[in-house]
Amino acid sequence: MTLDKLRSAFLLSTFALAALASLGTPVFARGISTLKAADPNTRINVRTQPTIKSSAPQYGLPGDKVEVIKCVQDKDTKNSDLNWCEVKFVKSKAVGWIRSDFIIFADGGE
Fold this sequence. Notes:
single chain; 6-stranded antiparallel beta sheet; 32% strand
């Protein structure tokens, strides 16, 4: 490979990484996790988008098992340390977004 081709490949890689970084930093799959709530009878909203402004056509219950697909920063609340996580329910295969404070992550993270 010539020096010019190496430079081009490096620049392209650098550009691609910069473009991905500009999208935010999603956290990817964390294994099978469990939904939680203070009240065991709580219906946990499963939203269509990672925001409280989106519809919640489904719900989960504390104890439901979910596969965490990815998580993104909560933008609803200024300076929030929470994330919204896209999840897939193990039993029903339903997919939607749940805020991270309703999830016990398989890897012990938040």
